[in-house]
Amino acid sequence: MAEKSVWSHLKGKFTFGIIERHEDSLVLGQADTSYNFRHSPMVVQHGDGIKWVEKGRNYSGWIELKQGVVPKRDSSIVQIKFEPEQKPWLKWRGLYGADAWVLVRADRTYLLFYWTDIDELGKVPMGKLKELAANYWIGGINSIELRETLMRFN
């Protein structure tokens, strides 16, 4: 249920491309969402005045959505539950060149993790989660920063 509210927030902020929710009971561990967007083409001017249009680049990947449970003490572990197949599914995709992410909402904070940093999720307190995150937002996701973060790791 809580993942649906994370989805609603993400969908509203993903204004720069296509994002789809997946609920697949046949493929164990598959991420909740997939996305695709194109970086805007640019007009590039060379030093001698020649202009050309650089084609936009395509970005796509997977995002697993999670609801974290934040304890009262700052030093306590933020609980993030994964099914046994989920982390391996994301890592497998990442190892073979796909972008794979986990988006965690913990109270009012949204944290985005690249697949290489997901082993620590569910094992560390909030301060460490913020250090591990590729980006995080308090109160809501910033669309521009989300897009830039997804592009930076591709």
What descriptors fit this protein?
154 residues, alpha+beta, Trna Endonuclease, Chain: A, domain 1, six-stranded mixed beta sheet, two-stranded antiparallel ribbon, 8 strands
Note poorly predicted spans: none
Counting copies of identical and different chains, the oligomeric state is single chain
Q: Structural class given helices, strands, pairing? A: alpha+beta
Proper CATH architecture:
3-Layer(aba) Sandwich
CATH fold-type name: Trna Endonuclease, Chain: A, domain 1
Terminal CA distance reads 30 Å
Strand order in space, largest sheet: 1-2-5-6-7-8
- Say how many strands there are: 8
Radius of gyration over alpha carbons? 17 Å
Q: Percent of residues in helical segments?
A: 25-40%
What profile does the largest beta sheet have? 6 strands, mixed
Mean pLDDT over the residues: 87
* Broad shape: globular
Beta-strand content bin: 25-35%
How is this structure best described in words?
This protein is α+β, with helices and mostly antiparallel strands. Helices cover 25% and strands 31% of the residues. The strands form 2 sheets. A 6-stranded mixed sheet has the order 1-2-5-6-7-8, with helices on both faces. The mean pLDDT is 87.
Task: Offer a concise description of the structure.
This protein is of the alpha+beta class and 154 residues long.
